[in-house]
Amino acid sequence: DPALLRYFVLHNCDDALPDRTRIRFEFEARQFDGSHFSSELSGLATVYFAKLLLFSVYLVYYIFLCRSYLNENAIDGFGAKSSGRKTGVVGAVASLRGLNWGNLHPVIWMLTGVIGLQVFSTALEYGHLLIYASNGSGLRALVMFADMLHAGSQVLIQAILVLIALGWLVT
After folding, report:
1. pLDDT digits (tens, 9 = 90+) for 20-70
2. Own/partner pairs for 148-152, CB < 8 Å, 24+ apart?
3. Three-class SS of residue 99?
4. Would you say the pTM of this structure is higher than 0.85?
5. What's the CA gap between 137 and 129, in Å, rounded?
6. What span, in angstroms and rounded, lies between the C-alpha atoms of 119 and 2?
7. Are 73 and 105 in contact (CB under 8 A)?
8. Nearest partner of 41 among 52, 53, 29, judged by Cα
């Protein structure tokens, strides 16, 4: 029977315990299938894995968009016009090294920071969920750091929106 109830009683009949006594206990609860996750959180690790995968794919796509923008301007890392582009993965990696990434607008750099913070925050949350699945308590430091990174990304994106509203991009 998976539903077991255990009762424990601590009684001080002869007043032998002091007025302030600390009693430490540990309680571990599992679902019928042995999982530490409650029924409403049962698929959360899968959702975070999918979120991490999608964020990572988007980050790679975003970097290639930035690369193609710099290739359209045809300025390499030495300030000269670029010629004879290679195609495929070899060309993509070669062009990542030879481009002058400083030619990107500061908003693009800030958005890159937001995306990077989100990816790293999601990776930490997923790591916490994996640890939680094995020991039932997780690693609280991962959650706190992930929350700080998420808050930092939110502040950064709000700052971008405020600066745009104030006319930062208007030339």
Report:
1. 777 777 766 666 666 666 766 778 888 999 999 999 899 888 888 888 877
2. 149/117, 149/118, 149/120, 149/121, 149/124, 150/117, 150/118, 150/121, 152/117
3. strand
4. no
5. 9
6. 39
7. no
8. 29
